[in-house]
Amino acid sequence: MRIKDIELLNTKQKSGFKRKKITKKLIIHLLLIMGGITMLLPFFWMVSTSLKENSLLFQIPPKFIPSPVALHNYPDAINTIPYMRYLWNTTFITVSKALGEVFISAFIAFGFARFKFRGKKFLFLFLLATIMIPGEVTLIPMFIMWRKLGAIDTYVPLILPAFTGSAVFIFFLKQYFSAIPKELEEAARIDGCNSFQIFYKIFLPNAKPALITIGIWSFQGSWNDLMGPLIFLNSYKKFTLQLGLSMFQSLHKVEWGQLMAASVMTMIPVLIIFFMGQKYFTEGIKFTGIKG
């Protein structure tokens, strides 16, 4: 009887633990679902507004599912502004800037991660200190500098600074490169590889998740950048999509349906890039802090 009582008690304890785990998981999943819905709600409302007629935009109570569906807002948005030209301008700036930031940041991070030189720690700390400087602080000096160089109303101020690297990306990649085994580097040197060959034959392929991660960050930041083009560009033909969206607003009227339609189309490339690199994005974040 005692053995049976003990077995029964153990069974009850195990079932109690399972119930607690299930209850805990349910609570966590419910909280995550509620948080996800809260974050996605503005996006759903933007899509809903892009499919509404102007007369239905401010109806009370508001409706998520429009009736009738105003699909004409999308072609109207493309025809209202030179959308395809602005799309090309934004793509050119974003891709050029991303390529520069990713490669140069990786090159500098490789030097900090693998080379020993005098003042290395000071230079790295000085580099990290620049992260704390807000971009608004350097905006006026940068504008004066580019104006004296005659680069205002060109893409040079928007693209060229990317080829000096990004302090955040350099720190991120330096942590990743430090986790790569030194045996790979030593074996490559025995085979006759120089430092640059080691960089692009060993470090770049092994850091693919980290490179894709900072590539996504760079793409998203450049694609959604409003301040840079607003300050440095004057010609309508050179505007980006973010500046083009402001054309749907005037002093007396805002074309909300067309504005939301253009915003949805502008967001689609960023979503595609993110979902394509989502696997590498999470992997890059996971392995960055292995070794400091």
Name of the CATH superfamily of the largest domain: MetI-like
Q: How many strand segments? A: 0
CATH overall fold name of the largest domain = MetI-like fold
Q: Which CATH class of the largest domain is shown?
A: Mainly Alpha
Radius of gyration: 26 Å
Shape: flat
Question: What is the structural class?
Answer: mainly alpha
Number of domains: 2
Number of helices: 14
Helix-residue proportion? over 70%
Give the percentage of residues in beta strands.
under 5%
End-to-end separation: 59 Å
Largest sheet: none
- CATH-level-2 architecture of the largest domain: Orthogonal Bundle
Give the averaged pLDDT, no decimals: 83
Show unreliable segments: none
How do the helices and strands follow one another from N- to C-terminus?
HHHHHHHHHHHHHH
